[in-house]
Write a structure and sequence with these properties.
The protein has 445 residues and is α/β, with parallel strands linked by helices. Helix content is 41%, strand content 13%. It has 16 helices and 13 strands. It is rod-shaped and about 120 Å long.
């Protein structure tokens, strides 16, 4: 389905450091806000997943890793935004303290995207890794997209506390692993992949766990968000807070990390998130009938995003209701993007309509004959009414002029009277006929 209107990305719901960074970088590189928001979330998740988990609605700890799928055409600034968020702190204009651990963002990213390097990076206790690809097309055809691998990846987000993969050189066990994936792909390339994949990777549970950001103005025109810009806005406050998370996350990506700290919601945040989960569940057969798999993950993705907001903005204490509300605004919007990408984009384009000129329908044969008889009788009356007082022509004279049989004459005259073309005065031999409204008869009566 083409030309589906798309709601604007709700950047006004971003917490202050995210909001300022998104506006500043979007204007600086003339990049779509969807692209900037996706990378801001991906960078925060890469750092926060190392040190924290969140208590879910089911009473069990869950990873706060976020997966992002960013679709945008070429030459819109994806590369510049990617490098801005995933470069080392020194390159971003932030001075590193003297007690820096020496870890850079690049150390946390997995470069060789295959199963063996992934398990090597996650093997051990409480390890985390992030796959962030500036050009995610290669990921779609890589070894991690095999069905037997896709079925294991969700264990790094909400599955059992350990992930075990056996190989002919031995098995590797990852206990309490965390994995974040961020892909940046051109829309047409991703749509083509989905068609050939026949949505198998979606049904295996991979894509419903992603927050979807789609900037495809040709198919899904977006109403620009009304934002207030300021020259004082900068991305540096956000980068400083991310750098703080980077320094506090551990000493070395290779070493086993200490057990992650557990984030909890305050009573108001917990009640609001449970209300969201209840509402979404009730809307699955109706509003979300075509994206039930993604909507079913909405509550947990809201908690993941709220946890990242909380860590970047506050760093400690319980998660507030405000962060749940801000996160839900983006998860709800992401569901519309998911529908665009995984439902509307796969529908065939509408066929052009061929409008043929319509001819007025012809009346049946008996109606045509009746019209002709009525018109002929009306013309006979009009030809003689000037020879009689007040234009009243004797009925017997009209019968002679028309030459109709008695039944045909009575039927035709009756229709003329019914249609208010003529009227009759008198009776029997003295009956006269006069015209009420002289006009051409072109419709059946």
């Amino acid at each position: 389905m083409y030309n589906q209107p798309s709601p604007a990305c709700p950047i006004e719901r971003l917490p202050s450091p995210f909001y300022e960074a998104v506006l500043h970088l979007s204007q600086r590189f003339d990049a779509p806000v969807e692209v900037v928001v996706a990378d801001a979330f991906a960078s925060a998740s890469t750092l926060s997943q190392r040190s924290h988990k969140a208590m879910g609605l089911n009473g069990h700890p869950m990873a706060i890793s976020m997966n992002t799928l960013s679709l945008a055409p070429t030459a819109v600034g994806k590369g510049e935004i990617y490098r801005e968020f995933f470069e080392s702190p020194g390159d971003a204009g932030i001075d590193e303290p003297t007690h820096s651990t020496g870890i850079t963002m690049d150390d946390l990213l997995l470069q060789d995207v295959s199963l063996s390097p992934l398990m090597s990076a996650l093997a051990g206790h409480a390890k985390s890794v992030s796959i962030q690809l500036e050009d995610g097309f290669s990921f779609l055809h890589g070894p991690l997209m095999k069905p037997d691998v896709i079925s294991k990846l969700p264990q790094a987000w909400s599955g059992p506390p350990s992930l075990k993969v056996g190989r002919h050189h031995g098995s590797k066990i990852a206990i309490d692993p965390c994995l974040a994936i961020g892909l940046r792909i051109q829309p047409e390339l991703f749509y083509d992949f989905l068609r050939r994949d026949k949505s198998r990777s979606r049904h295996l549970g991979l894509w419903p766990r992603f927050l979807t950001f789609c900037h495809d103005p040709q198919r899904f025109p977006t109403t620009s968000a009304q934002v207030v810009s300021s020259s004082l806005m900068s991305h540096l406050p956000l980068m400083e807070r991310l750098n703080t998370l980077l320094r506090s996350g551990g000493t070395s990506p290779e070493a086993d990390d200490s057990p992650r700290k557990l984030l909890v919601m305050d009573i108001h945040a917990h009640a609001h998130l449970r209300e969201i989960a209840y509402w979404v569940k009730g809307q699955l057969p109706t509003k979300f009938h075509d994206i039930q798999d993604a909507a079913g993950r909405a509550a947990e993705n809201t908690l993941r995003l709220a946890s990242n907001f909380h860590l970047v903005c506050h760093g400690e204490g319980p998660i507030s209701r405000e962060m749940i509300e801000r996160a839900w605004a983006f998860v709800d919007w992401s569901l519309t993007q998911f529908r665009h990408v995984f439902v509307h984009a796969l529908q065939p384009p509408p066929k052009p309509l061929k409008v043929k000129p319509m001819k007025p329908p012809k009346p049946p044969v008996h109606r045509q004959r009746l019209n002709a008889d009525m018109q002929f009788m009306l013309e006979c009356i009009a030809a003689r009414n000037c020879h009689h007082p007040n234009g009243k022509v004797p009925q017997r004279e009209v019968a002679l002029l028309t030459g109709f049989s008695l039944m045909r004459f009575c039927k035709t005259l009756g229709w003329l009277i019914t249609a208010r073309f003529v009227d009759v005065e008198g009776s029997d031999e003295n009956a006269t006929v006069f015209i009420l409204a002289p006009q051409y008869i072109n419709a059946p009566y």
